[in-house]
Amino acid sequence: MITNNLSIRNYDFYNPNNIFIIENKKLEGLEDFLMKKYEVNQEIKEKYSFSNWIKYVLDIKPHKEITLP
Fold this sequence. Notes:
Blueprint: E1 2-3, E2 20-21, H1 30-35, H2 42-47, H3 50-58
Parallel strand pairs: 1-2
């Protein structure tokens, strides 16, 4: 993902190997970013999965809490 949203750093799913942040309209480091291997964090993947989300919304236990930073 490539974004100019600086606040994305505050989210638990933020990983600098997966999300490139454009700051001050500068693309320095973009080429290196594009060469990095995408990293999957299983815990984060499960937390934001549809099945966990629906359990959270319907308050079906067990589920992982989904909160904003």
